[in-house]
TrEMBL record:
Family label: Belongs to the acyl-CoA dehydrogenase family.
Domain Acyl-CoA oxidase/dehydrogenase middle: 140-230
Cofactor: FAD
PANTHER family in UniProt: GLUTARYL-COA DEHYDROGENASE, MITOCHONDRIAL (PTHR42807:SF1)
Domain (Acyl-CoA dehydrogenase/oxidase N-terminal) ranges: 23-136
Reactions the enzyme catalyzes: glutaryl-CoA + oxidized [electron-transfer flavoprotein] + 2 H(+) = (2E)-butenoyl-CoA + reduced [electron-transfer flavoprotein] + CO2
Keywords: FAD, Flavoprotein, Oxidoreductase, Transit peptide
Metabolic or biological pathway: Amino-acid metabolism; lysine degradation; Amino-acid metabolism; tryptophan metabolism
Record domain Acyl-CoA dehydrogenase/oxidase C-terminal: where: 242-389
Protein name: glutaryl-CoA dehydrogenase (ETF)
Record-listed E.C. numbers: 1.3.8.6
Length: 396
């Protein structure tokens, strides 16, 4: 017998009904973060972007802490302990507003807090994680240097023994939240290889300088960290950190958030184009009725939904403990490129209006240029995927 049931027409905003694949808890978290983003962030983000800062970063941290998204994927110490897909859905809703706001959460939770959670002593965890989860303390993650980006093994920051303590010297660059942080996780070369250090930012010799004149991620605080003879007690060492694998494992957590986050940026650009195309009239009809515009909308909805499928699949693999770092490279490489295509296409649909802050598309478009570079450039992720499928490293 033939099936007489009629399938419902696709939802233009969830064409493949992918949100039906979320559990009730994951949907609740999605809805909670989406509502917070709409009420607390979206009305302000254009002004923050234009100003080139987050005026009240500490207040924002506390609101995000109360929401429960800071370190939300970690267990214990005041953290929510939710699953990877719930965390991903939260990142998606935050980046639908702005990549800089998702970065604020990612750096706090997936970089600084994850480093302490994975490699810190019990004393360090108890001292810092509850306050960071609540947003009472802000953290940053110092790995990248002015001359050491894609090759962190060439870092020049050094930590040398000084009696029972350590002395750190060096410079870190492009550090999100650096100039508003209470603690910096700083990675430095030692005689025993790369180790992590938990550095209170009021330590003498530590300076954070805000990076100015950015044209991307403007609703984010980016800093240079300078360490000149910074003396730390032995207890500042993250005892579980050993080699470059330690910071890279933290970066993988942050990259996973990007895999989901850029879906939000792409979705926001597509939805803005859809709304604009169905209301903007030229030549006596809405521009969405023209073939070329419909082709653009079709390309965008395909990219958004395929990127969401990729994020969801990698999230489920992560739940199963089957997510390899190459899977995350696949997701970042594919989804950032898809989001960039959507942002560019959406900008063209909006015409001249697309370059203003009245619409989100140019802001997302500029932000995604940075997202394509940080947490591993697209070239590095392409080589990671290439190595995975050939078994041959092309990095050197």
């Amino acid at each position: 017998m033939s099936d007489q049931r009629k399938a419902a027409a696709p939802d233009a905003r969830d064409f493949l009904a992918l949100d039906r694949e979320l559990t009730d808890e994951e949907r609740d978290i999605r809805d909670t973060v989406r509502a917070f983003a709409a009420d607390e962030l979206l009305p302000n983000v254009a002004d923050w972007y234009e100003a080139g800062t987050i005026p009240d970063a500490r207040g924002l941290a506390k609101r995000l802490g109360a929401l429960g998204v800071l370190g939300m994927h970690l267990e214990g110490y005041g953290c929510a302990g939710v699953g990877p897909v719930a965390y991903g859905a939260a990142c998606r809703e935050l980046e639908a507003v702005d990549s800089g706001l998702r970065s604020f959460v990612s750096v706090q939770g997936s970089l600084a807090m994850t480093a302490i959670h994975k490699f810190g002593s019990e004393e360090q965890k108890r001292e810092w994680l509850p306050g960071m989860a609540a947003g009472d303390a802000i953290g940053c993650f110092g790995l990248t240097e002015p001359d050491s980006g894609s090759d962190p093994g060439s870092m020049r920051t050094r930590a040398r023994r000084d009696g029972d303590g350590w002395v750190l010297d060096g410079t870190k660059m492009w550090i999100t939240n650096g100039s508003v942080a209470d603690a910096a996780v700083v990675w430095a070369a030692t005689d025993d290889g790369v180790r992590g250090f938990l550095v209170p930012t009021d330590t003498p010799g530590f300076t954070a300088n805000t990076v100015r004149h950015k044209l991307s991620l403007r609703a984010s605080i980016t800093s240079e960290l300078v360490l000149e003879g910074v003396r730390l007690p032995g207890s500042a060492l993250l005892p579980g950190s050993r080699g470059l694998g330690s910071p890279l494992s933290c970066l993988n957590e942050a990259r996973y958030g990007i895999v989901w986050g850029v879906v939000g940026a792409a979705r926001a650009c597509y939805e803005s184009a859809l709304e604009y195309a169905t209301t903007r009239e030229q030549f006596g009809q809405a521009i969405g009725g023209f073939q070329l515009t419909q082709r653009k909308l079709a390309d965008m909805v395909v990219d958004v939904n395929q990127a969401q499928m990729t994020a969801l699949r990698i999230g489920r693999l992560k739940e199963q403990g089957a997510c390899h770092h190459n899977h995350v490279s696949f997701g970042k490489f594919a989804n950032v490129a898809a989001a960039q295509r959507v942002a560019r296409t959406s900008r063209s649909v909006h015409g001249a209006n697309g370059i203003t802050l009245e619409y989100p598309v140019m802001r997302h478009m500029a932000n995604l240029e940075t997202v394509a570079t940080y947490e591993g450039t697209e070239e590095i992720h392409a080589l990671s995927i290439g190595q995975a499928v050939t078994g041959v490293s092309a990095f050197r």
